[in-house]
Amino acid sequence: MAGFDKVVGSYEEAMAGLDNGMTVIAGGFGLCGIPENLIAQIKRMRVRDLTIVSNNCGIDGFGLGILLEDKQIRKMISSYVGENALFEKQLLEGELEVELTPQGTLAEKMRAGGAGIPAFYTATGYGTPVAEGKEVREFNGRPHILEQSIRGDFAIVKGWKADRYGNVVYRHTAQNFNPMAATAGKITVVEVEEIVEPGELDPTQIHTPGIYVDRLIQGSFEKRIEQRTVRSA
After folding, report:
1. Domain 2-124+131-218 grouped into CATH 3.40.1080.10
2. If I label 134, which of 114, 168, 172, 190 is the partner at 20 to 30 A Cα–Cα?
3. Known NCBIfam families for this protein (predicted)?
C-alpha cells in the first residue's frame, strides 16, 4: 500500500511544479487555519503573476500578505480585504487586480469546482455590482445570477491531523474554507500539525478524504492572533 502514502519530506517537494501565472486556491479565514508554511514556500520560490483565491489576503507581513511584498500576486479573488495596507496601496495604484465575491458564493465556487459542477445560480449579489455582466434567470419568482465555479492549479490547505494516506481532520473554526479548497486543486497540498498512521483516525471524524490530497507535510505553526484586544489595567 506504499503508493497511497502522500507524505513528502520538504516544502520544496510539497510545492514542486508551481510556476508563474498559475492559480492557487488557499484555505483559511483571517489568520485562522492558513497554510502559512506553504505560503512562505511560494514566497521563497519567487513565482509571479499568480491568481490567488482565498477569503482574504492575510495581513501586512504575514499569511498571504507576504506575497504582496514582491508583487507576486497579479489577481486576488476574495471576500474581504480590509486588514492589509499594502493590498490597498497596490489596488489603488492599479498594480493588483481584485475580484470581490460574496463569502458564501466564494465557498460554493470552490465546492462546485471540486464536484465537477461548472457553474451554479445564486440570488446573492443580484442587483449589485457583483451581478454585472452575468446571466440572470428567475427561479420561483426570484432573480438569480450565474456564477462560474473555480479550479486551481494548486490548492494549499492547513489541517490539524492527517494519516499518511492523506485523510485530514480540521480543528474547530480552522476548518473554514479548507475542506472546499482541498477538493478544488489539480494538485492539493496539505500541511498539518501531526501525521499519524492509517487506522489511527476515527473514520467518522475525517473531513477531507485522502482521495483529494496529493501531497502531505508536517509543519510547525506560529498561530498568530489577527487582532488582540485587552482590558486596560
Report:
1. yes
2. 114
3. pcaI_scoA_fam (TIGR02429)
Q: Write the single-letter amino acid at 12.
A: E
Torsion of CA 29, 34, 40, 42, to 10 degrees: -80
Domain boundaries along the sequence of the chain: 2-124+131-218
Residue 188: CB atoms within 10 A of its CB come to: 26
β 136-139/152-158 pair status: unpaired
Q: Along the 233 residues of the chain, how does pLDDT read in single tens digits?
A: 446 999 999 999 999 999 999 999 999 999 999 999 999 999 999 999 999 999 999 999 999 999 999 999 999 999 998 889 999 999 999 999 999 999 999 999 999 999 999 999 999 999 999 999 999 999 999 999 999 999 999 999 999 999 999 999 999 999 999 999 999 999 999 999 999 999 999 999 999 999 999 999 999 998 777 777 788 87
Tell me, what amino acid is at 80?
Answer: Y
Look at residues 121, 192, 180 and name the one whose alpha carbon lies nearest to residue 151.
180
pTM of the model: 0.93
Strands 50-53, 73-78: pairing kind: parallel
CA–CA–CA angle 146, 151, 155 (5° rounding): 140
Residues contacting residue 160 through CB under 8 Å, at least 6 positions apart: 168, 169, 170, 171, 174, 192, 193, 194
